[in-house]
Amino acid sequence: MNEQQLYTFIEVARRRHFRQAADALQLTQPAVSAQIKSLEEELGTTLFYRSNVKLTSSGRLFLPYALQIVELIRESKDLITENEEKPVKHPMVIGTTSCLTMTVLHRLTHYFQSFNQHTPLRVLTMSEEELIHAIKEGQIDLGIAYSLESLPSFIQTKTLFFDTFTLITSQEYPLTKPYSYISSTDLEKIPLISFAPSTMERRLLDRVCKQHGIHLNIMIELTSIDEIKSLVANNYGAALVPTTSVYSKNSSYRRVRLVQFDHSFPVLLYYPEKRYQSRTLKRLISDISGIYSAEDRFGE
Question: Both 25 and 11 in a single domain?
Fold first, then answer.
């Protein structure tokens, strides 16, 4: 049994397709088939059904051990590299949503510079659905996102902090001139720029407004937080956005305080339940409560 056989086995198990696994591994399909056959002969069992490619009962039993062996090989290489003071080849890959990117980058970058200088950090922006898929496929190590309504059984979560919605307008927007705060009743009269219904942020906003009996007057719907803030800055309207996405030093828009609108929603750490975790990953999961406090409420 060798490392390449294990990588091949894991890739076929993930994709349930020999040709797709071969393309991902940059091998020929006969080479992939030969490696799987050799591994099966060594183990004395059949790992895949061939007609409709899926794991046999033996294959399902072997998969978590194959993942653990591969991760141990990676960890041992990283430890040796770290001992020799060379850059680690495998970065820590974290997925997050566009609204949380700056908060995640600021704190995690500081953490890695202080405690994991030999581990490169890679942060990817994606939707919540893409984040869950990336965790399942092993494309990212961790995810940071708002709470999902339904969660697959293979995902574990940990609360990092709590976020809120805040109202932003341009400096010239008429609403901000007479007063610097509004009530939830006045909020219903304001034409708003908001997230598209398909986004997690919009689903969270709808849930909060339903709890308060508020019916928003939404005129423009967009999928990108940057597009929303750009329209707000150019005086196209006001917007309710997550507080973590509002930069206090940005002078192109301002925050307006909402009264009678108490609420909060959690930001969670997502990670695979049964996948083997490297030493660096275990430490990050343990330390992340110190990077982010569950008592944090941004913008308060």
Answer: yes
The answer to whether residues 23 and 145 belong to one domain is no
Phi, psi at residue 52, to the nearest 5°? -125, 95
pLDDT at 232: 93
**Same structural domain, 285 and 146:** yes
Spatial distance between the Cα atoms of 56 and 46, rounded to a whole number of angstroms = 7
What DSSP letter does each residue of 41-101 carry, written as one string? HHHTS--EETTTTEE-HHHHHHHHHHHHHHHHHHHHHHHHHHHTT---SS-EEEEE-TTTH
Number of Cα atoms under 13 Å in the Cβ half of residue 288:
22
Q: How many CB atoms lie within 10 A of CB 209?
A: 19
Statement: the pTM of the whole predicted model exceeds 0.70: no
What pLDDT, on the 0 to 100 scale, is given for residue 290?
62
Residue 67, number of CB atoms within 10 A of its CB: 19
